[in-house]
Records
---
Amino acid sequence: MSTSLDDMYREIIMDHFRSPRGKTPLEKTDASSEGMNPSCGDEIQVDFSADKDILTDVHVNCKGCAISVASGSMLAETVKGKSFDQVLRIAEIVKKMLKGEEVEIPDDPEFEDLSALQGVRQFPVRIKCALLAWVTLVEGVKKYKEGGADTAGAATTEDGV
Amino acid sequence: MATETRNTAAATGRLTGSLNVDLIKADFPILEEKVNGHRLVYLDSAASSQKPREVVHALSQYYRRMHSNIHRGLHTLAERATVAYEKSRRHVADFIGGVQPEEIIFTSGTTEAINLIAGTWGEMNIGEGDEIVVTEMEHHANFVPWFMLAQRKKAVIRKLPITVCGHLDLSDIDSIISSRTKLVAVTHMSNVLGTINPIQEIAQLAHKHGAVVVGDGAQAAPHMPLNVRDLGVDFYAFSAHKMLGPTGLGLLYGRRELLEAMPPYKFGGEMISKVSFDEVTFAELPHKFEAGTPNIADVVTFDAALTYLERIGMANARKHEIEITGYAIERLNSLDGLEIQGPQEVEQRGGAISFTDPNIHPHDISTFLDSRGIAIRAGHHCAQPLMRAMGKVATARASFYIYNDRSDVDALIDALVEMRKYFGV
């Protein structure tokens, strides 16, 4: 039956997959991190520029499945202009949501798209695909906060965020 | 052991030419399963084959009628189980070309069989600066044990590369295999590309330099007539579960004189001849390598799987696969932009076909096909060095066996067409 298939590949997800946001390279990159999903070979690079505590812009380059591409695209749309603390908070909510842990999803419009990722939970092997962009960004943010500008991080979904 | 009275496809005798797949399909109960509301189209036999009714029956009969521990028991059941266990060993020895039963070692799988060689022959014979030649298309099971051995011994791993068409590139083989070579590890058939390798030619060259040849037969043994003596390999490993048999059982063939000179791999019961606080002497072949209570039930059951394959005839199985693989390649090629990895010539390949779509990731392909009842595999297929050589991170792989026919290929193609519409790319 394709009902569960449509549950995972929701229209919002397919829209992000077909035309991913955050594809434009940044003029100024302050931090960059690479992530990969060893079990399926998805690869992602997340760059961002920052102004003090604010993530001003983000560039996502993902070579992977529809879920990892869509999740990366949603990330690009969501985190731009947020403070790093907010970014980490959002990443935490996404992570809990994907893992099926108890979490209150804020009633913000920006969570409208993100909550579409919940359908992935029915496909346990694909949860890592949806996590990849977020794990990678969090790694980049941590490194940035520790080391200041021009930092590079690396993450895999085996790190478990 | 009682056999079923049902007239199975295999029991109808040796069919010439292509197989009667309708009858064969009827022998495999799992193929009656519905998956996501669709008829199951099982195209993942390179990962593990399904089992005919006779094999399922043999396993249950074993536990119903003869289960007991083997070899030293003095009661009737122990005798029955021992006879059946050793009968299966003789059957394996015959199946791979009539070797001596003592040259067959039961292991947990191809992986353990290769680890056994690395951990015994390798430990004894590989030293600093020695070279181990491994092809670029090996499954991790025939790569990582050699890599680790080389690390332990400060030996050198030499790569036998592949061509863009997915064959082994033998143009430089005379410099790769040399007097420094101690061991050559080569797959008989690639689990990703389907390529059948010229193992005989490679073995001849290796032997000229005194090297030992390890053939990984996990993909080849289920699909073609096999004679390990003709191949010229010194060791050959394969798995029961990919050839209609149960999981958890591997077969290792080793040339007698090599096995005799090797130390045991594991120590314990069954593998000894005499034990005292002063001295331990080991049992004769093959028991020296089978410490502890072995996987009796699966060994006994495997006999039924081999009988089924022999009734079909391995030459017929191979002929059927050439036919269906050719049809699948032709139909896959008709899909615009779809790329098949590995040789296109059916005589030079087996029935595992890896492919990629320019816009849809293999995992999405697999998920979509599953929603239509079609089982394929997606990923790196435990062959990351090969993936790197091909410039891919993952592929989708459809693989065929005796119970697949053109209708299964058609179902795959129809679903791939539908998938492209679904993803809209």
---
Amino acid sequence: MVMMVAPALAVSAEEVAVYGYNSDPIVFWDPRDAASDETIWMNNVYERLLHLNFETGDLEPELAMRYEVSDDGLVWTFYLRQDVQFHTGNAMDAAAVRDSILGTKNRGKGLAYIWDAVKSVDVIDGHTVTFRLEYPAPLGLSAASALGAFIYDPKYVDEAWYSAGNDSGTGPYAVKSHDGTERIELAKFTKYWRGWDGQHFDKVVFLKVADATTRRLMVESGQIDFTNQLPPQMIADLGRSSSVEIVKGPSFQNLIAFFNTKKPPLDDPLVRRALAYTIPYADVITSALGGFGQQSRGPVPYGMWGHSDRIKQYTFSMETARALLTAAGYPDGGFKLVLTYTAGDDIEELTAQLWKSALAQLNVELEIRGMPWESHWDYAKGTDPLKRQDIFMFYWWSSYPNPYGYLHYMFETEQEITWNLGYYSNPVYDSLINTANRLTGRNQDEAIDMFIEAQNILMEDVPGLAVFDMQYVRAKNADLTGYVDNPIYTNVVFWYDCHRK
Amino acid sequence: MTSKSSPYGTIQLLRILRRQPLLFAGFVGVATVSLLAILAPLVAPYPEDAGSATHVDSRLLPPSADHLFGTDQLGRDILSRVLFGARISLSVSVAAIALALAIGVPLGVIAGYTGGVTDESIMRGTELIMSFPELLRAMAVMALLGPSLLNAVLALAVGWWTWHARLVRSQALSIRETAYVEAARAMGASWFRVVFRHVLPQCLVPATVQVSMDLGGIILTFATLSFLGIGAQPPTPEWGLMVSSGRTYFLTQWWITLFPGLAIFLTVLSFNLLGDGLREIMDPRMRGHQRRG
Amino acid sequence: MLSYVVRRCLFALFVLVGVSILTFLLTRVAPSDPAARWVGPRATAEQITQARAELGLDKPLPVQYMLYVSSLLQGNWGISIRTHRPVALDLQQYLPPTVELIVFSMFFAVPLGVFLGVVSAARSGTPVDHGARLLALAGVGLPGFWLAMILQIVFFKWIGLFPLSGRVAITTSVERLTGFLLIDSAIARNLPALGDALWHLVLPAATLAAYPVGNLARMTRNTMLEVLGEDFIRVARAIGAPEARVYFKHALRNVLGTLLTSTTLIFVYSLVGSFVVESVFNWPGFGSYAALSIMVIDYPAIMGITTVVAVSYVVLNLINDLAMAVVDPRIRLS
């Protein structure tokens, strides 16, 4: 039977790993532009100067062997490895690093903003490069970022060359072939600087499998070795299978509910505070997340520096909510709110439905609308604030491990609406976080205090509320070893470190 | 006696039903679904579950005496939701068909009767709309207007009116030449009167037969749109939406997708049987052949 | 005859132009920002404005349409906002898998449906007829997404007879020539891959076949019954022709016209209607491409998709009508 024959053929001399992903792995080909799902394969093809170890919090050497920072935090010097080659055949040197990073910064796409503090980059010698900053910033974090920090061969900048399926990285695997945007195959780069002693995969395939049930069946039957997020409900069942191992880990992803501060009744902070008491947090964690997560404390997620117990946390309390609503002039509720979320996301949908149920008890009608992401976002950017939604629900996560990202993008005053979807504007808050950001490179502890203060301002005004911090739950082949969960490199498996027992 | 000699007397009716088990089955099916839909608030054991109620403690329970169809991921009784879902499916479909007929039949009659440029332009218009595949049309409209039940009705009606217009037009074409209509014209009846009092009623018969089959098709399309996420929105207990949201649990909590899916299937099948059966007995060409067998 | 051909071709052209204008207007009127979609989820406001200029979205509508049409005719179908690849390339990529699936499915569905219809007509009024009609109506009424899921569970999870998803096993690779795996593996004489591809086709094709079988069975039955009442059939019977020949030779021939039209319509419908099957079986085809593009209002892709569908519809209809006109003089004289 063909079914029997096919697996037999697959057991060839080559070790092939398969990563089943829920979305298209290929979005942009150019390492300077990559901003989302490409991270899962680009982090095996490209490398960066430093690597952030989540457990210890240390910046570890990657393409740079070590680095030095001047006392004023304005000059960063990196000492590069001397044995690194690009897949294109050229050797990596200081000039390549300089051109590579400046190329990303100047192109202005993707995560170019992580280099905003850089004033100039100088080549000291063949393998030493110096960054001069405009203000003291934690450049090490930028250099270790999951995206936007790749060192690529700067002689290759032609978009058409990249789109044809080529890569200019230094990493252990190189792009071999691809099929549309759903499948990409990498093969090992024999001249990789770490060498190939020990057990390693020869090839890695990244495959889009949109349907969660199909993906789950594939993991169970061993057709894929690793998959990212599966719905929490499936995880419980999968855990019982002996061929599958469940991997849980913190993520930097949280669920945010923005309140439209420009539209009554949510223009009244009392009403917003009341609503913060009406979310059934415990039920949401159990039903929507399957227990894989915890209630947020402020918009900076658990596990990232800047998160703290000193930040206020709301509880589920209908009496408090009722009291606040009465104080605001709505003793019997009687108003309607429209909540929009991204269609197709079960977790958001369940959360919204539980909230709706709770609000019904206060005679507040919550209409929930699932919309495709583009329409969802567009609706929130409409010209008339009164015509926009009342509550905007979505996830936030950051590829750049800095609380400033969360606090700046979502709550700082915006001229043109992008991510501040509560339309909040508070000059005190704005100056507080920007001062803290500039302080981070020099005095992180003081910066943390300021970030905490800023978050407490947000908890008082409640322009938006972080509902829960998610845990990432993934399923992998029980025989697969070497995977280390690192929320900074979201969804990335460093396949070089893995092998199948 | 008149009742025995008229072709549709009770005895004749029973005879027809006996010879047409499919029509009978379809009729029973449609009647059952309609009845259940109307009586849902009274018959459903947990009517609040069809709205925004949630019962986190009784999530994902298998079928039992308390919950004949089990409960879903928010603890809601699936039987109650399926019953209320019948209301939504039927009301949206009937509304869409009514709108389609309201647009299509008059346009078709005018096209067929008037002929000339009016006919040509209306027909070209229908062909233009029909060259978009149905699902694509409906999806495009929903994507533009946003998901809501009203928009779904519009999206569905947009496609189906063309079909009826063409059907009615060919009827009108043949009726136009009959002596009956010529007489009306000779007597000086206005164009308006001739079209709407004389021609239109005769065109309605084939249209009504087609309607039953159409209802089945519309229910299916609407379920598919909801399955995709651009039809009914949660927590509406629409069948397609229930199948879609149950997909995650499909392998272990199979009842969440099975029962709504079954409801769609049986309802659409019933309408199809009814429509097909009506066609059987009303089409004279069929009748002639059948008496042989 | 010639005037008929000319008339039909002109009309076909008219429909194509009309469809393209209609789709163009619809996508431009849509309340969505293609520039934001292009740049991706973590874009800044400046990046979006930059993208808008790059994509030419700031020009007046008629100009955009003319630009579009001229580039279309030159073979440049624009760049998809969602995949960032040329739409022509995307279509080249995603059409073959769906066409392969539909053709494979129809290959079995058409004879099966017709056979069912003929049997139904021959034994009309009997339980055989009733049973066949019930099957046909069930096929037409089954929700595709539901059937797909059930087949997957029964034939993969429980019985383990057919594969779960995809066109071939993950580790099988076939050199891409036409995009049709059956053809490509045959050309490369890669028999295991050919077998693998066939094995993967079974479940999705079966799901897709339910509607055509039901539809064709009904069409065939009803048209045959009409034809069987005609005089020439009575004559054939009177002469003493065997029943089988009466049905399959004389009656069926006259039914061909309707069959052809139905098959054409079903083919075009399946191009987009296949997306549910494609989604459940992870089949990277035209249907899912169409569904995804519509959901995110990827206007170049949508234009490409509607063009393909409209052209297929118009061309197939044209061929159909012309073939019928050759066979039946009454048509071209009307």
